[in-house]
Amino acid sequence: MPVSYNLMHTIEFPFDNRLMPFISSANIACGFHAGDEDTIKRTIDLCLIDEVAIGAHPGFNDRVNFGRTNMQLTACELYDLFAEQIELMQRICRREGCLLHHVKPHGALYNMAAANAEMSYTIAAVIKELDASLIVYGLSNSHLITEAKKMGLQTASEVFADRTYQPDGTLTPRTNSLALINNTEDALAQSLQMVLEKTVTAVDGSIVSIDAATICIHGDGDHAVDFAKAIHHHFLKNNIHLKTIGA
Q1: Which of 93, 104, 118, 131 has its CA 20 to 30 A from that of 149?
Q2: Domains of the chain and any CATH numbers
Q3: 71-80 per-position pLDDT tens digit
């Protein structure tokens, strides 16, 4: 079972090197919502040490809100926004002598695309044009997964260890007090349920069917290291092994 998490690599987040041994892929901010060329390079270097797959994590150009506020863009604006960030990651990867493995939208862009087929089509089109071998990470059962598959791109349906779910399978908005899971036992229980039962329990108690190809832990979360260690340990006990998607 492949496991990934969101690596929001700004210098305020001290967890990067502690998380690497417990993950198989990392999503690296591309300079718009967070990070810059130096932090991208340093995070890639950490990935190479632990053989962690390198992913681009493009977000809205909105550092003030860390890319977690909805923005309305035209299809052309979205295309350019997404392409610029992936191209930056590609250039740095080439300089470092490594390959970009996957792409996952960040924050509000991720959630908007999950619910919007047109946005998802534009994002998938960018990825296909720049490098059709890149794997698209997207919310399980989302438009992004559907549109990427239509274009012949490889996809990885993503679920979350540290976020709660709505009855329709979307993530609970961060404005809701129930949005985040802050307890290691709860994060572990949800992760095991998603992988072993292919379901998740929504905030209203309903059971939602999901496809769990990769699990996300947000690297900027206070409990990120504890969650990653617990999931890694208990997954091994249940014969669920860390594996890079596509390997």
Answers
A1: 93
A2: 4-160+210-237 (3.20.20.370)
A3: 999 999 999 9
User: pTM here?
Assistant: 0.94
Angle at 90 between CA 43 and CA 66, to 5 degrees: 55
As a whole number of angstroms, the distance between CA 226 and CA 224 comes to: 6
Give the 3-state secondary structure of the chain: CCCEEEECCCCCCCCHHHHHHHCCEEEEECCCCCCCHHHHHHHHHHHHHCCCEEEEECCCCCCCCCCCCCCCCCHHHHHHHHHHHHHHHHHHHHHHCCCCCEECCCHHHHHHHHHCHHHHHHHHHHHHHHCCCCEEEEECCCHHHHHHHHCCCCEEEEEECCECECCCCCECCCCCCCCECCCHHHHHHHHHHHHHCCEEECCCCCEEECCCCEEECECCCCCHHHHHHHHHHHHHHCCCCCCCCCC
